[in-house]
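Lab channel / #folding
Pinned by the channel admin:
"Please post every new chain as: sequence first, then the structure tokens as a reply. Keep commentary short and put observations after the output so the thread stays searchable."

First post following the new format, from NK:
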Amino acid sequence: SRLDTAQGAYKLRDVALERGILHINYDGDGIGSNIGANLKLLGQLPFSFDPIRGSDAATDYYIENEQRTCKDKFYNYRAEMYFMAAERFRKTWEKLNNINFYPDDECISIPYEPKLIQQLSQPTWTYKENGKWLVASKEAMRASGIASPDHSDALIYALVHKTKPQYFNTAVSW
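Reply from TO:
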């Protein structure tokens, strides 16, 4: 059964306290948008939290090898986040196959979670008429009969480092 956002905030707080988590990113669009307000109602917490809104504009992060910003390449922040995660998977594959060397903090390792792996492969990409990449929205996926990618979104959001968008968090536990 699904938790309401108040119950979700309590559960999130309990898990964060149990695991010693110092920062939480949560889905700031749709149903998850009230999580932050509910966390604030819980009073002083030993961790910080930020909403991640895939619907926001892409960041000004400069993509060195493409000589353009994420704003120039991606339709929205969701597309940017999924692309940055895909880059980490590509770098990991190249490193494991001795094609290129990358530091560990630019790579990714995920647990064997079939639902997560399935969901990471489901979003499709569209090249919009304005020349920007768009990853399928949750609504578009639902319309195609694909369930909300809650597990893949959780991973993507956990990787985001809000104060330095070009850097993804390196220590994410699943």
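NK: The mean pLDDT is 88.
TO: also worth noting, The longest strand covers residues 23-27.
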